[in-house]
Amino acid sequence: MFVPLERLVNLDEGYRRTFQVEGRSLLLLVLDNQPLLLIDSCPHKGASLSVATLSGNILRCQRHGIEFQLPSGIPVQAPCPGLSLLKVAYEGDCIGIDV
């Protein structure tokens, strides 16, 4: 089942917004004109990534400073699991997720 999150026309560079889908908090962001969808939780201690800083292609968790490379989600230096990236789906003029 397709769950729409946003209209494609709204996905400009720098876009960032959280969504609740089936009890999970998801973060949709646009980096290098590429939409990325991930679980809105740092794998280190569970902090929300909605307020993480983004410098180039590095997403830095505000709580403990853990950094992740985007779009891969791989941690930069810490022995930490990578980000949980989800596959986006498209239907009509919307981006979303298949659940």
Q: What structural class do helix, strand and pairing data support?
A: mainly beta
By DSSP, the count of extended strands is: 10
CATH topology: Rieske Iron-sulfur Protein
Please indicate the count of domains.
1
What's the Cα radius of gyration? 13 Å
Name of the level-1 CATH class: Mainly Beta
* Shape summary: globular
The H-level CATH homologous superfamily, spelled out, is: Rieske [2Fe-2S] iron-sulphur domain
CATH architecture: 3-layer Sandwich
Q: Please estimate the helix content.
A: under 10%
Round the mean pLDDT to the nearest integer and report it: 95
The rounded distance between the terminal residues' Cα atoms is: 5 Å
Q: SSE string, helix = H, strand = E?
A: EEEEEEEEEE
Uncertain stretches: none
- The portion of residues forming beta strands comes to over 45%
> How can the largest sheet be summarized?
4 strands, antiparallel
> If helices are DSSP runs of H or I spanning 4 or more residues, what is the number of helices?
0
> What topology, given as strand order, has the largest sheet?
2-3-4-8
Oligomer designation:
single chain
Characterise the protein shown here.
The protein has about 100 residues and is mostly beta strands. It has one domain (about 1-99): Rieske Iron-sulfur Protein. The chain contains no helices and ten strands. It has strands at about 1-5, 15-20, 25-30, 35-40, 55, 60, 65-70, 85, 90, 95-99. It has a four-stranded antiparallel beta sheet, with no helix packed on it. A hairpin with a 6-residue loop joins strand 6 and strand 7 (about 65-70). The N and C termini lie close together (about 5 Å).
